[in-house]
Amino acid sequence: MPGIALLPCAEGLHSLVLLLCGTVLTGAATILGYRGRLEVVNQIAPAEQRGEIIASYILFMYVGNSLPIIGIGLLASATSSFTADVTFALVIAACAVSALIIGGKTTAALAALIACWILTLPLP
Fold first, then answer.
1. What is the pLDDT of residues 22-72, one digit of tens each?
2. Under a CB-based contact definition with an 8 Å cutoff, are residues 93 and 5 in contact?
3. Among the four residues 29, 69, 78, 89, which has the most C-beta atoms within 10 Å?
4. CA-CA-CA-CA dihedral for 76, 20, 59, 95, to nearest 10
């Protein structure tokens, strides 16, 4: 979540350092999330269907990564890139907070709420 918050802040402040920090944090979170989800899929998949299930998982993962990019591009062409980036960050933050609350992880949900608060800070 902090990585997602840093990306629109970097654009608004025109800060390369914030952009790089946000990219590193978001990339690390993505890698850890992918690894964890793949481990769960491996655990619950029947041995005789593991290959097909992993292939389906990877297919949907790439589609899930591609659709927001298309949406950001369409929104950026209709408004501005900053508006599109902030909207994307807010939607991702809302989805993450919802998932954390539904999952019952209150400490992580609190961290997500703090990240959402950071997104609402006024830019100088």
1. 888 888 888 887 888 888 888 888 888 888 888 888 888 888 778 888 888
2. yes
3. 89
4. -70
